[in-house]
Design brief:
single chain, 302 residues, mainly alpha, 3-stranded antiparallel beta sheet, 3 strands, 55% helix
C-alpha cells in the first residue's frame, strides 16, 4: 500500500533527520494508525495520500469525543507533522490539517516531591534485598539517587554508561533527546552510592551487549523503563505516599528544589537539557514564592 510506504518513509525521516527517540517515533506512527483504523471502520475507500479536509475534520471531531484536550492536541499535532512531510515529499499537494485548529490547553504544572518524601522513598529501599545473587537494593538506591541528584529523564538514566562517569571532574555525560549530549554535575553523595553499586556490579555476569551499561537487571542486561517505574511505584506504596509519581517526578523535584534554593534558571535549563528556556520556565509557576524573593532582593524600590 502506498500509504504504508509513506508512513515508513516518515518514520525514517523522524529517526535520521530529526533524531527522535524510538518512543517518539512510535507515538507519531500511532497517530497515523488511528486515522487508518477510522477510515477502515467507516469503509472509506481512501488513504492518507488522498484524504480530504472534510474527512480529516470529521475524524478530529469524532476523536474529540474520546480524548481529553491534551491528547486531542497531541493527535492533531502528530498528524499535521505527517501531512507536512507528505506534502514536502510530493505524496500530496496540500496539508488537510492546515485549517484545523489545535485546542488550547492549559500548562500542566509538574508534580513534585518534598525533600522529606524523597528521603522517605529512598529510606524504604531494602538494601539487603537480592535477586539471583544480585543486590538489587543497592542498585535501586544508586538509581534513585542518580535520578534525583542529576535530574535525568528515565531514558537517560537507563542508557547511562560506565564510560559516561567522570567522577574526578564531578560530571556525568548524558545522552538526551535527539542523541544530544550534555555534561551534568554530580554530587559526592550520588557518586558514593554509584561506586557501591559498581563494586557489586563487578560480580554480575554481564550480557555481551551491556558491558558498558551502568544499571543492570539480575540477568546482566540493561534495566528497562518499566522496571524503573515499578521500583518507584512499589516504594511509594511502601511509605503510603498519597501521590501518583513516576521517574519524571524526581526530575521535576530536582529542578523545583534548585529553584527554591536560588539556582539560576539558565543553569537549570542546561542541566535538564531543555532546548528552550521557555520549557524550563514552567518551574517558575511551581514556586511563585521565588519570584517574590527575587523582587525583594534585587529591585531598587522593594
Amino acid at each position: 500500500m502506498k500509504w504504508q510506504n509513506a508512513l515508513d518513509d516518515f518514520k525514517y525521516y523522524l529517526k535520521i533527520e530529526r533524531g527522535l527517540s524510538a518512543n517518539s517515533i512510535e507515538n507519531y506512527e500511532l497517530d497515523v494508525l488511528k486515522l487508518i483504523r477510522y477510515l477502515e471502520f467507516r469503509n472509506m475507500q481512501t488513504s492518507p495520500i488522498d484524504i480530504s479536509y472534510e474527512t480529516i475534520q470529521d475524524f478530529v471531531y469524532q476523536s474529540a469525543k474520546e480524548l481529553n484536550t491534551r491528547s486531542q492536541s497531541r493527535l492533531i499535532s502528530g498528524l499535521r507533522s505527517f501531512f507536512t512531510y507528505l506534502v514536502f515529499e510530493d505524496y500530496r499537494k496540500t496539508n488537510p490539517l492546515d485549517h484545523i485548529e489545535t485546542p488550547k490547553i492549559g500548562r500542566k504544572l509538574p508534580d513534585t516531591l518534598s525533600t522529606k518524601e524523597i528521603d522517605d522513598l529512598i529510606s524504604a529501599i531494602d538494601l539487603s534485598k537480592t535477586y539471583n545473587g544480585v543486590c538489587i537494593g543497592e542498585r535501586n538506591r544508586a538509581l534513585l539517587e542518580t535520578l534525583y541528584g542529576c535530574g535525568l529523564r528515565v531514558s537517560e538514566l537507563i542508557n547511562l554508561r560506565l564510560s559516561d562517569l567522570f567522577f574526578d571532574e564531578g560530571f556525568i555525560k548524558v545522552t538526551g533527546k535527539g542523541d544530544k549530549q550534555r555534561f551534568v554535575p554530580i554530587g559526592s553523595n550520588t557518586q558514593k552510592y554509584i561506586d557501591i553499586w559498581i563494586a557489586i556490579r563487578a560480580h554480575i555476569k554481564v550480557h555481551a551487549e551491556h558491558t558498558d551499561t551502568l544499571f543492570l537487571n539480575n540477568r546482566g542486561k540493561q534495566l528497562t523503563r518499566a522496571m524503573v517505574f515499578t521500583i518507584i511505584k512499589d516504594l511509594a506504596k511502601a511509605i503510603n505516599l498519597n501521590k501518583v509519581i513516576s521517574p519524571h517526578t524526581f526530575r521535576h523535584s530536582f529542578a523545583t528544589h534548585l529553584l527554591e534554593n536560588g539556582a539560576d534558571l539558565r543553569a537549570i535549563q542546561l542541566m535538564l537539557g531543555h532546548e528552550s528556556i521557555t520549557t524550563t520556565e514552567i518551574y517558575m509557576h511551581v514556586d511563585r514564592s521565588h519570584l517574590k524573593d527575587v523582587l525583594m532582593t534585587y529591585h531598587p524600590r522593594k
